[in-house]
Give the backbone structure.
Amino acid sequence: MEKRNSSHISIGIGLLLVGAIMLSFQLVPDLRQIIAPYANWPLIIAAFGLFLIFTGFIAQNPESITGGCFFIGLAGIFTWQVYTGDWASWAYMWTLFGAFSGAGTILSSFVAPQPQKKIFKGLRDILFSAIMFFLFSSLLGGKNWIGPYWPVLIILAGLVMLAKPLFSRFINDSSESETINN
């Protein structure tokens, strides 16, 4: 499916859903009071992420699926911070962005060409993000996951970076190979 057509499909589905929601508020005036206790702003971000994943699968658009996972992860971070009041955790929580994108890359492998490469790339991103999360949270006031052994995480990050060239035929994504060929 062409990118242009998939964009039209995503926008069309989005407009249908927004219109249906707005119409339901018009037809059932008490609906706002029923939903209000459950609708907080991180939930709106998560709903947007679910919308992107849904339309990504319908339109066969892997980028939408990856973006949707990113927004759902972001909503998870914000939900944690809203309910715990631990806004300082942002100092290390941002390192999870790579894991969210990695999960999206794995999920998008169902609609993308070369799914095996997508899965390896997603797993690599999740692993690197987890290493960075444990490192930054241990150093910046989060839970001290590994105590004095935090340099081990730097060594693991280095091993991940060294492993990429060794396993490049499995984890080399198409954009890198296109750059090399040009």
Q: What stands out?
A: The chain is about 75% helix and 0% strand. The chain has one domain: 3-172. The CA atoms of residues 175 and 181 lie 10 Å apart.
